[in-house]
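seq/struct pair 1
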Amino acid sequence: MRLVSIASGSSGNCIYVGTENTHILVDAGISNKRIEEGLHEIGVKADELDAVVITHEHSDHVKGLGVLARKHGVPIYATKETLEEIGEMKYLGDYPRELFCPVLPMWNLQWETWR
């Protein structure tokens, strides 16, 4: 498994996590162009992404999400509340909301689930 920081900081966050068969971004807080360049540097194409996981809806975590979703149709995973906030962000533009995949935060799961 590879874990690569494409960008980290107040100007934008984007982490690649992947194997030969699975490619995931954690956050898309930089431009899609910078995301694609960062992926290219590690030998991954944006079209190969299986998912984008958004940790929260601040702009330094979602800035490139709209273009990434429109251009590559990557499923977007986040909590229901985060997806609702992202869906209201006009600056991300239009993209298919069918890409939204809500996840349940761990703190909502009962302890027995994790034993």
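seq/struct pair 2
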Amino acid sequence: MNERQQRMQTIISENGEATLAELERLFPEVSSMTLRRDLEKLEMQGEIVRTRSGAKSIAHLSRLHEDLYSERARENTAEKKQIAQRARRFITQGSSVFLDSGTTVTYLANLLVGDRLFVITSAPNIALSCVKNQYMTVFLTGGRLSGRNLSLSGLNALTFLDCVNIDTAFVGASGYTPDNAFTCGNYDESQMKKRVIEKAARVVLLMDSSKAGKSLPFTFAHPRDIEFLVTDDKIGPAYLEELQKETEVIW
């Protein structure tokens, strides 16, 4: 990291974020392209996450995540913890795993203390949690940051996923109905989930029972596309019967 990049890191860390226009004013002696390359390097080092207009610090995103998700994290807490404990069995030491964004997958990530893994994630908060484990190698997908769910997606994320091998993917869903299957509310995120499912040797979908019966705009998978669905014991028998036709359900 050169002196300019260190200054950029400090600016972004102290302010939480910085736009490319602001950095251009602060570093008039270098081109926009050079500044973009500097941001790319800082992102690769896990210091920042690039956004459409500039960059945000990982620490700032962690604090923001706590504010945005505190209410969601308190919903169905027992069920989400139950699902995370059940999904834990699919962790193989030394393997490459993808951890999706979302509160249920976050509970799983928090269980992986001391595990030896290569972790690929689209969630800055999960990356920040996992990087504390000295036995983990952590990669962020990059891409556009969603202010609604703090998930990275878009063309850069898809390009990155093309370069990696995934042994097991742990994917979340925002809704499930028999007609529309597994859905989410963001198009770019749905495309990323599809790519992850295509790349992974094994897909484990984590979904608490409150998502059953909900349908969001974008379908990203059908039960036949995943090896295992991990849910809680409150899943309705009609949904359970329908799901078990095409995948193994753990509940």
